[in-house]
Amino acid sequence: MSSVLSSKPILYSYFRSSCSWRVRIALALKGIEYEYRPVNLIKAGGEQHSENFKNLNPLEKVPALVINGHTLTQSLAIINYLDEEYPQNKLLPVDPLMKAQVNIVANAIACDIQPIQNLVVLQYVGDEKKAEWGKYWITKGFTGLEKLLSTTAGKYCVGDSVTVADLCLVPQVYNANRFKVDMAEFPLISRINQALCQLEAFQISHPDNQPDSPQH
Amino acid sequence: MYIDYRLKQPILYSYFRSSCSWRVRIALALKGIEYEYRPVNLIKAGGEQHSENFKNLNPLEKVPALVINGHTLTQSLAIINYLDEEYPQNKLLPVDPLMKAQVNIVANAIACDIQPIQNLVVLQYVGDEKKAEWGKYWITKGFTGLEKLLSTTAGKYCVGDSVTVADLCLVPQVYNANRFKVDMAEFPLISRINQALCQLEAFQISHPDNQPDSPQH
Predict the structure, then answer these.
(1) Chain A contact present for B25, CB below 8 A
(2) Where does the GST N-terminal domain start and stop, copy by copy (chain A) (predicted)?
């Protein structure tokens, strides 16, 4: 049984999944090596719906992280767990009010924006309408987020340290660009995103640099 | 002028039927925190959440918002986490990191994967003709996975035998499921847990029917 605890964590991920990317950033920031297992969300009806994967995650979504003998899902739950068990480069402040600010920004993305433009919703909305749908909901969410960040941001989303909020922001800006959101309307989000994208952890975890990225 | 914010009652901006507001109302009830209720009518006159006053309070133009200890907090899960740290009676999150992760997984399976897709703003965008089908579809889909997830975590409640954040998310979502005529017979575990939670006083006093802005008042 000890071999289970000493083996590398396994991350089930799709290169372009926002939620998988958040977890990849956290793992990179904390220097946690892991085995990458790609789950192609599109091919053959989507590998996330296979019997094997359903057994791993009945919610049929990525990411899933197998770590310390347990399978964790839901990116924010995974990141919170990692932050507690691997405290290097803390992603949540200790002070309850500062922590609340970080959670507010993170949830303003992870609850209010990303789920509405997630793949399953786009598939339901249909090919004709999905571009307009994605652009609309991200623009709407970013409009409020830009104002919120004006009350919290320093170098990054909340103050001057990288937090969970930043892990949520960068993948969402990537999606905004995919959906041709006019980022000129969001100078603060853009500035913060640019600063974060300079950091190594955000680069090595980028969708272009994964084992299942298309150019490979 | 020094104001001791700890002496002022918290103020909760809430709509009686808002799932996210209800979650926070349950937390406040469980922890015995008295507060002033300020209703925000999400429908009337284009929605009071879009007023200049409310936008200044919450630029995201949503409820709930909780003014507490001199600060304004939004996002129900962020509020609940804060309350759980500052008011530790009736802890809503386990201390053990893995148990806490399980609670967060279930809570997020509702708060990220289901509720946002059937939230009011999305229903308004989808339009009156399609919103009933839309709401029913997304809650049914979400509950299908949730039923299986809960079979690995549930005791008396969503995760083990204590009330946690996961339960605060579940009950309002089941209420919505019933509004959208989801066939709850497909979800016996969710139904059983929901029924047990609805017996608890905190879930009753925070119920949409019992708020200052509930329609019968």
Answers:
(1) no
(2) 7-90
- How high is the ipTM of this complex? 0.96
Mean pLDDT over the full length of chain A: 95
Third-level CATH fold of B97-203: Glutathione S-transferase Yfyf (Class Pi); Chain A, domain 2 (1.20.1050)
Look at the block and give the residue holding tokens 């006083």: B201
pLDDT in tens, chain A (216 residues): 444 455 899 999 999 999 999 999 999 999 999 999 999 999 989 999 999 999 999 999 999 999 999 999 999 999 999 999 999 999 999 999 999 999 999 999 999 999 999 999 999 999 999 999 999 999 999 999 999 999 999 999 999 999 999 999 999 999 999 999 999 999 999 999 999 999 999 999 999 999 999 975
How far does Cα B146 stand from its chain's mean position?
Answer: 17
- Among A146, A112, A152, A133, CA closest to B20: A112
Residues 78..137 of A with a Cβ closer than 8 Å to B: which? 78, 80-81, 84-85, 96-97, 99-100, 103-104, 106-108, 110-112, 114-116, 120-121, 124, 136
- Cβ–Cβ pairs < 8 A, chains A and B: 105
Measured between beta carbons, the chain A residues lying within 8 angstroms of B105 are 72-74, 77
Total number of residues shown for chain B: 217
Contact call for residues A122 and A133 (beta carbons, < 8 A): yes
User: What residue spans in chain B does CATH classification 3.40.30.10 cover?
Assistant: 14-90
Whether the ω angle into residue A87 lies within 30 degrees of 0, i.e. cis, is no
The minimum CA-CA distance between B81 and chain A, rounded to whole Å, is 7
Q: Do A100 and B78 touch (CB under 8 A)?
A: yes
What burial class does residue B23 get, using C-beta atoms within 10 Å of its C-beta: 0-12 exposed, 13-18 middle, 19+ buried? buried
Tell whether domain B14-90 is in CATH 3.40.30.10: yes
In chain A, % of residues over pLDDT 70: 97
